[in-house]
Amino acid sequence: MRLYSIRLGEEETAALATTEGLLPLRALNLLFKTSWPETVWDILQMGVLNELRTWFNNLSQDDLKRTAKEQLKRTEVLYCPLYRHPGKIWGIGLNYPAHAADLSARTPQELPAGFIKADTTIIGPGDSVRLPLLSQKVTGEAELGLVIGSEIKNLDSEKPLRALAGFVSIIDMTAEDILRKNPRYLTLSKNFNTFISLGPQLVTVDEIPHLEDLKISTLLNGQVAAENTVSEMTFSPAFLIRFLAKVMTLQPGDIISSGTPGAAALRHGDRIECRINGFEPLRNPVIDLKRR
Question: Structure pTM?
Answer without folding.
Answer: 0.94
